[in-house]
Amino acid sequence: MSEKLRIIKMTEDELDAVDVMELEVYGDTAAPFEFLMDAFNDPNGYLYVAYWGDEIAGHCAMSHKTSATPNYCNIGNLMVKKNFRRRGIGKLLMIKILDKAKELGLSRATLKVATENFAAIDLYKSFGFQVEELIKNFYADEGGDAYIMWSYSI
Q1: 20-41 pLDDT, tens per residue?
Q2: I need a labelling partner for 89 at 20 to 30 A (CA). Which of 65, 100, 123, 127 fits?
């Protein structure tokens, strides 16, 4: 890992910066701030930020519900700012999230990804995820479709 890169558990102080980053990357289709707050306050949620030097370069989230989903997690909002892509940050965020899932005793993971996000799909496939389902018009504002991907052995 580069000396410039560090991945840490997100703190409340970073929520606003992550929200701004999501708006920069996703524009009008970014998740509302309340969604980020709910994920941050979820006792079964784990949010991480990637710093490149002093700047937030990316983030990701993982959650699991012990009663409803006893042995799998949902990975969400893995994103890297455009000017920090192609540096392995997404891969290291995935490693961090999957290591946390394993630490919790979880063995499977699921996520959703836009069908046209080929770089992310390739990243997830490199971690053993497979496309399981197509959701038409998942991104209602854009009319974009999404895949549900699963890894049955993390």
Answers
A1: 888 887 777 677 777 788 888 8
A2: 65
Provide mean pLDDT across the span 55-82. 86
Nearest to 120 by CA among 145, 154, 85: 85
Q: Which letter, b or e, does each residue of 65-101 get, where b requires 16 or more Cβ atoms within 10 Å of its Cβ?
A: eeeeeeebbbbbbbbbbeebeebebbebbbebbbebb
Question: Which domains, ranges and CATH numbers included, belong to the chain?
Answer: 5-151 (3.40.630.30)
> What tokens does 44 get?
């079964």
Name the β-bridge partners of 6. Answer: 51
Q: What distance in Å separates the CA atoms of residue 51 and residue 138, rounded to the nearest whole number?
A: 30
Q: Which two tokens stand for residue 139?
A: 């991104």
Q: Which residues contact 73 (CB under 8 A, 6 or more apart)?
A: 62, 63, 64, 97, 101, 104, 106, 108, 109, 110
Q: What's the whole-model pTM score?
A: 0.88
Helices (H) and strands (E) counted in the chain, each on its own, are 4, 7
CA dist 62 and 64 (Å) reads 7
Return the structure tokens found at 87: 């540096």
